[in-house]
Amino acid sequence: MTRWTFWIPLGLFAAFCGLAAYQLTQPKDEFIASTMIGKPVPDFALRPAHDERPGLTIANLRDGKPKLLNIWASWCVPCIAEAPYLEALRAQGAEVVGVAIRDRPADVSRFLATYGNPYSRIGADDLSEVQLSIGSSGVPETFVVDGNGIITYQHIGDVRAEHVPMLLQALAEAGQ
Amino acid sequence: MIAELGLAALWIAAALAVLQLVGGAVAQRDPESDLAKLVRPAAIIQGVLAAFSFVMLLYLFAVTDLSVKLVATNSHSDKPMIFKLAGAWGNHEGSMLLWITVMAMAGGLIGLVERRLPEKTMMATLAAQAFVAMGFYAFILLSSNPFERLPQPAIEGMGLNPLLQDIGLAFHPPTLYFGYVGLSVAFSFAVGALLTRKVGPDFARAMRPWVLGAWIFLTLGITAGSYWAYYELGWGGWWFWDPVENASLMPWLAATALLHSVSVLAARDALRAWTIMLGVVAFSMSMLGTFLVRSGILTSVHAFAVDPERGSFILVLLALYIGGALLLFALRAGTVAEGERFAIASREGALVFNNVMLSAILGIVLLGTLYPLLTEAFDVRVSVGPPYFNPVGAIFVIPMLMVMAVGPLLRWRNDNFHRVKLPMAMVAGIMLAVLALVLVLGSYGWLPMLGLAVSIGLAIGSFLPLRGRNLLRVPTATWGMVIAHFGIAVALFGMASESAFSEERLAAVEVGDSTQVGPWTVVLDQVAPVAGPNWTAIEGRLSAQYGDGAAIDLRPQSRNFWAPPQETTESTLATRWNGQLYAVIGNQASDGRWQLRLWWKPFVTLIWYGGILVALGGLLALIGRLRTDLKRRSAKSRNAERKLEEAEV
Questions:
Q1: What is the residue range of the signal peptide feature (chain A) (predicted)?
Q2: Interface contact B634, partner A, CB < 8 A
């Protein structure tokens, strides 16, 4: 080893720090986007999750009208938090359909009676099949589906006040 | 009150670190000053206080104190006690507290027991240790306070990542941390030695137990992590070259190189600058790993606490410590004399070769890990995986393993390859025979075949140093080396066998159907829902039969956790002496059939048994070293000391 070689590690390290510092200041995608965006919802048919609303099938998603597809469950705590905002979305003209994950009819009814029922249809997904087939990894999640059953947007986590205008816009875009 | 106690202890510990740094610096000019006398006590009390603080955090998790933010976000009153406790370190803040606790306790231990180093070097080492610790104290106290209270106590906790609710993973991070932090001690030793220009056998012998200890923990941590990923993620693989895995592998590679070069330094007073360099690099890799995992700068399946602000903080620490140490190295390494010379055909020569190969592998892994970061700067997203790492790594791993089989047979300083001709020819012959046999017999990839051949040669070669010796009088450290090298051979055999002979079957079956994979016949008897303390699952009940043997009951599950909501795959394994059957249950198809994924993996378990053997070898070496250290205190002359050392490496 000659003397100048002792400086090589420092040089390499400085280059790394520069690169890392640059990367840290770059905006990052917060979520890993579903690979299903832009793809059609696979075929499915779910029985009603409780007595008051009809079930959900793929035909309902292909009726020409864009919809919000909300994945939720009565045992899910963040779902309570998002309930008023789903209601707000419905009040502003969005059609919301639900998929209840691993739930019992009585629990579904009790949840909807307590926190409001924004859904036009709710299918019961007892084995998480539909949930997994559209690329959702947890509850709650909300998808924007256009009139032909194509997923155009995925929202991971609960819907909060600040997401309402965004989802309405995504819905409007899906309708064009 | 408990949380505030923990926080107060941490602040005082941080203040003691400042005292330790100042005292250590003053000691360089005036070793007799009052401040210099405070350095050792400061290190010891700092260790005690940090430990106290960590115990307070454990207590808060044990009682699920939901007024503490960290507990509320990472625990749940329904969780089993063991996972409540594991929750204390299964998150960013808690794991940083564990890090600083281990580091402070290590510093305290040096202050308590280390008497071999010249006092000045010792003071410089403790000052360096305090300097590193201060950054981490600042990080915890200013940006990651684990004791932060909520304005309103939460009603219920948010749980722990279900992937982490596994006994293996609960203890995997602390194991790795002991390794990482042990390397911080080696780093402080290196910096202390550079500051006082005292690099020699004494320094190497003082540093070695720390490197050995860190290396044992890293070995265990990587082994456990690999097994966890294998059975918990349900992908059927055992190593994915994921950035997080690489983050633990890189310090291990550096520590392995350091371990060998520190032995050369201790025995022969050679490789001075190189050993110092590796001491700096090994800890740099620990910190780099921490940075990559926590900054969110790389995407990984199991990175956590994605937070650019914390990333910036760690980057600053990284620049300060690693940059500072490398600058010091550049300025001082030239003044640390080369040490003694040796011929290429010698024990040192083989160890240098091993060091160069290990460094090359480290370089390759580092490059592969950082490459996506580099290309992303130019808006190109790539992912670097096994197609890069496996063949490129093999270029260096294979020759290294071959030299490994021969190196321990060579004499120090100057030897003749003729002397080890016979064992070399024997090992080479066996390897060629195995290679020829497997090439003739099967249509398998050449790389796993080569791996099999090399592993057999190495397995034999690793025992050759015992040839012709009285086994009862072989030093413990030598046994350690033999077992560690044999462990590498065992692990390699498992890896090669798994990659060459695994069979996979993805089947859609109805209840009652049977499927074949390798020598196994698997019948799906039933599918039933089951519930646990905080999850529900669909469980497949399989009976698996090896050949004509008795049926074994297997129950793979697809689990759903609700706090937080997440789905995990619980694979099941049927282990036989010659391999494992690996079963995963998937979803039900629309026609009512169930997806069943089965693998037959011959000798796969040897990968982890090998890892455990390697760690065991390290442990024996450590015990042997500590015992001779005690003996050495009575060894009078320097010459006698060197003889003792050379007899053992």
A1: none
A2: no
Q: Considering the entire predicted model, what is its pTM?
A: 0.80
Chain B nearest C-alpha distance from A104 (Å): 13
Please check the confidence at residue B464 and state whether its pLDDT lies above 70: yes
| C-beta atoms of B373 and A19 within 8 A | yes
d(Cα B499, Cα B356) in Å, to the nearest integer?
Answer: 27
Q: How far is CA B13 from the centre of its chain?
A: 27
The answer, yes or no, to whether residue A6 has pLDDT greater than 50, is yes
What would the 3-class secondary structure string for B515-557 be? EEECCEEEEEEEEEEEECCCEEEEEEEEEEEECCCCEEEECCE
* Smallest Cα distance from B357 to chain A, Å: 17
3-class DSSP state of B510: coil
Collect all residues of chain B within an 8 Å Cβ-Cβ radius of residue A138.
564-567
Q: Which pair of tokens denotes residue A85?
A: 């905002």
Mean pLDDT value of segment B421-427: 77
CB contact under 8 A, A14 and B566: no
Please answer whether residues B158 and B72 qualify as being in contact, where contact means their C-beta atoms are separated by less than 8 angstroms.
Answer: yes
Would you call B588 and A127 a contact, using CB atoms and an 8 Å cutoff? yes
Q: Where are the domains of chain B?
A: 1-160, 166-415, 503-602
- Please answer whether residues B617 and B603 qualify as being in contact, where contact means their C-beta atoms are separated by less than 8 angstroms: no
**Where is B13: in which H helix or E strand?**
helix B2-29
Contact B330 A20 (CB under 8 A): no
By the CB < 8 Å criterion, does B277 face chain A?
yes
Residues 34-53 of A with CB under 8 A from B: 43
Q: Token pair of B537, please?
A: 């699952």
The number of angstroms, rounded, from the C-alpha of B21 to the middle of its chain's C-alpha atoms is 29
Q: What single-letter amino acid sits at B578? A: N
Q: Helix/strand/coil (H, E, C) string of B242-310?
A: CHHHHHHHHHHHHHHHHHHHHHHHHHHCECHHHHHHHHHHHHHHHHHHHHHHHHCCCCCCCCCCCCHHH
Residues within 8 A of A (CB atoms), B 537-556 only: 538
Q: Which helix (H) or strand (E) holds B559?
A: strand B557-562
Return the exposure string of B471-506: e unless at least 16 CB atoms fall within 10 Å of the residue's CB, then b. Answer: eeebbbbbbbbbbbbbbbbbbbbbbbbbbbbbeebe
- Residue B306 clears pLDDT 60, i.e. is over it: no
Residue B83: enclosing H or E segment and its boundaries?
helix B81-87
Q: Per the CB < 8 Å rule, is A20 touching B536? A: no
CATH C-level class of A39-174: alpha beta
Task: Note whether A137 contacts B322, CB cutoff 8 Å.
Answer: no
Considering only alpha carbons, which residue of chain B is nearest residue A46?
B590
The answer, yes or no, to whether residue B273 has pLDDT greater than 90, is no
Task: Give the one of B281, B297, B560 whose C-beta lies nearest to A102's C-beta.
Answer: B560
Asked if B559 and B536 count as a contact pair (C-beta separation under 8 A), the reply is yes
Nearest chain B CA: its distance from A87 CA (Å): 23
